[in-house]
Fold:
Amino acid sequence: MRSLNPIRMSGLEVLPIVEGGKGIAVSNGESSGAWAAAGGVGTFSGVNPDSYDSHGNFIPQHYYGRTRRERHEELIAYAIRGGIAQTQVAHERANGQGRIHMNVLWEMAAAERILSGVLEGTKGMIHGVTCGAGMPYRLAELCAEFGVYYYPIVSSGRAFNALWRRAYNRFPEWLGAVVYEDPWLAGGHNGLSNSEDPAKPEDPLPRVLALREVMRGFGLGEVPIIMAGGVWYLREWEDWIDNPDLGPIAFQFGTRPLLTQESPISDAWRDRLRTLRPGDVYLNKFSPTGFYSSAVVNPFLRELQERSERQVAFSVESVGDHTVEFPIGRRGRIIYLTDHDRRRAEAWIAQGFTQAMKTPDNTVIFVTPESANEILTDQINCMGCLSACQFSNWAQNEAGTTGKKADPRSYCIQKTLQNISHSEDVQHQLMFAGHNAYRFRDDPFYANGFIPTVGQLVERITTGD
Ligand SMILES: Cc1cc2nc3c(=O)[nH]c(=O)nc-3n(C[C@H](O)[C@H](O)[C@H](O)COP(=O)(O)O)c2cc1C
Ligand code: SF4
Structure:
């Protein structure tokens, strides 16, 4: 294995090894601080992170506001407080070594307010901000105001081209690196575009070379690219290291750091990771953000798959093949189905999926009364955590809505990520993971239940294993 040379990121020579940010509280001050202390770059999640009272006790996020907008304001206050708390922990743990980055999701509600609030309250402690999802045009200007490096996460050279031309070209000195996240392999949300086929993964090398070409065109040949998604053993990436065509490269890990002493995930989550097999992580389109995402197939994800399978198109008038009257809801409102779909719907009802719920796409899905109740309750309890949510139809605009029908095929990501982060439940919650997670099972490093410290993992990674 080629030796890894240090690389300059966020103003310091560091190991070219990064812990990726993981929401909600999966990469935090402890894990990112430990990663920095080991000489790399640690990234804590700035998406609704945990905060603590003056005795150091975790503050559960309860919401008291009566309207979504009031709860949205409470959420922003929690997020800023949590971001500052995690920064302080990370700063202490890092002990002056490595670099600390904060991760934000541009599609989270009030991303700019939260980012500014945290940077304002932690001056000098955060060295970089990584930001994925959507097109974060304002990221560069905001980071430059605080003298912090910015790290856009993209899945193609095309996306970076648009960001640079429209906004980033005015702040070249604060661009820390560009994160290329493999949209077929990385855990969490994935940036697959409409022209890319979720079933046809593409080799990252030509895509990253294309990104480098775009960057060279803007005079950014020496700005590092951080390769994220599907990286396990660095010995499998030897042709990427010191490759003059690629230029400076670092590697980001999201899934491997889940299984470390400092990782805050539950024992149940750790145990499940060790038993995953190829194919157990599923690239799906259920996220209320509208993005693809990758998570472990468990009863939570299976229920979403099945909800979407128990789906038929309807018409409000009798037209074409849709001529069969079908009463739905308490008031027995009539919709029209095809005869074939009427039979399918009746079979689902006979199995207990008695509640028909309309989607924004002129379809209805069939769920149990318990499920329908949970969906409606979660929609009502929404605290506006996203800038636009397909599940509840909340939007951060004046009207407070996307103007579309709420989509019962999706779920409240805020609720489920809080639950999985703060309980032992890994069956009925969303469990993000990268597609390589099955490798925990066979990697000898983890034999006999061994769980490394972050320091041990970083050392192991530098050996190529
Ligand atoms: C549990 C989990 C949660 C994640 N959450 C986020 C997130 O909130 N924001 C983000 O930009 N990336 C997130 N990611 C992606 C990671 O930061 C990282 O880029 C990715 O996991 C790298 O690929 P790998 O999973 O193959 O290691 C998450 C990944 C995992 C596994
Ligand atoms: S319903 Fe949507 S916007 Fe509201 S809290 Fe849940 S995920 Fe966030």
Remarks:
- The two ends are 9 Å apart (CA to CA).
- Residues 68-94 form the longest helix (27 residues).
- The domain at 7-267+440-462 is CATH 3.20.20.70 (TIM Barrel).
